[in-house]
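Fig. S4 source data, part A: sequence.
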Amino acid sequence: MAVPASILSTEQTLELKTIKAGLVARACSIYRVDVIRVYIDRADAWLDADLLYKLLEYARTPPYLRRRLYPLRREYSYAGLLPPLQLPTHGAGGPRPGEYREALVLETRRGMLLLDAGLGRPVKARGRARRGSLVLVRVESIDPPRVSLAEDAAVYRGYSVRLYSSLRTAARRNTSTLIIATDKHGTPIDEVEDGLLEDIKSAKRVIVLFGSPKETLEEIAAREGFDMKSHADYTINTIPLQGTLTVRTEEAIHATLSIINRLTWRIDRAEQETPGPRRG
């Protein structure tokens, strides 16, 4: 997913900017976004880009690791207003045996890792990783605390955040990438849903693009010297009967990702119901 840095520009205070960043973080977590691409859509949006990047990263970090990873800085003055993401790896309601958590690598020596997994004291586990990196672990025991590395576990760990200097670079593609642009004047979603379903099924990566509070994607692309309509595989309107004059970016994110999520669920269900080859 790609969002403009100026999504924060409509808010005049750090407090309100933090709240809006939290809305984006929460929506992306609900719909299992892998990567949030924050792009600079205006020359004066660098500060908002940096702030949005930092707040999204902070929100995605497990609460028990934030004091270690984030020093007290002005950007986090209102971090307490960020909604809890409650990712499966954030230890909500825990700790408990069998749950998965993200752990910070404190030290590494001879195939052993010293980890902070939010269990009250550092724990050891066999494995290899860089000092300062985050690894996925499975809690084996609470008393005494004991964990094992579980990097291959099928559990959603949240999004990563990347910063791009323009819409063009954020929307960069290859032959296996499906580009979906959102626009109030795009094709109503019901007219392309079947084709979109098939294209999502065959794509290795899907990137959903969102415009800014003041400019559409087409307008931003025109300033950057390229044509969004020819660049995107689909330009869709996911709220064809909107009752307001404008739809805020954070609202469009929910509306659009809910549709993509439903299509993805249909694909997963169809694959599960398809009988595999007979054995023997």
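Fig. S4 source data, part B ends here. The chain is about 30% helix and 25% strand.
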